[in-house]
Fold:
Amino acid sequence: MPTIAQPSVQSLLIQMRFNGQLLSTGTAFVVQVASGSYLVTNRHNVTGRHQDTGEPLSNTGGIPNEIVVVHNCNGHLGQWESRIEALYADEVPRWLEHSVLGARADFVALPLTQLADVALYPYDTANTGPAISVGPADTVSVIGFPFGITAGGAFGIWATGFMASEADIDFNDLPVLLIDCRSRQGQSGSPVIAYRSAGGAPMADGSQAMFGTPVWKFIGIYSGRINAESDLGIVWKASAINQLVQSL
Structure:
């Protein structure tokens, strides 16, 4: 198989279902801590409800009770296996939310239990990557599955846009930044990264570094557009996701 960029396999296609009936698709990724492996995605994916209004997202009115995760096969890059994870145990949600923001944060972590013969390629939210410069107008990529479409097999699709706000400034008094990217339904839950090809790259301290291979920095998780008429997208920052991960 030709060389595959690791972020292409780190994004996982997910399907939200009610008793086997497909309601919607989205994107997720994996993190690993001492307590186990967790699927990180948007809260609105697992609740099946609009994050702000609480209205059902599916035109069927259904709310998911299970999630299908399309995992990479262990030892067979380029092959995939679907695993079903329950979203509730005795009617109690299995997913975990941010300890301070709670339901206000549109990201959650779901413990993974069905991992036989699965290969995991987790993001490390505590070590997000080299300190490359990421500021307004710098390129970033949203790697996911718009409308449930893949880039062949179950490889993620790279939608690339630009930083639209200062990385260190919080939008709407939340740990959120904005990007300008033509992202669409199905990309909710996608990791957002700053990917730089081999060669010179400006660093956050103003220096220039040379890299012999491509590098990337994890920026956060995409959770949709600010409204249906705009290409401005909401990204929950890596630092907030790491706070959730460190509490698991």
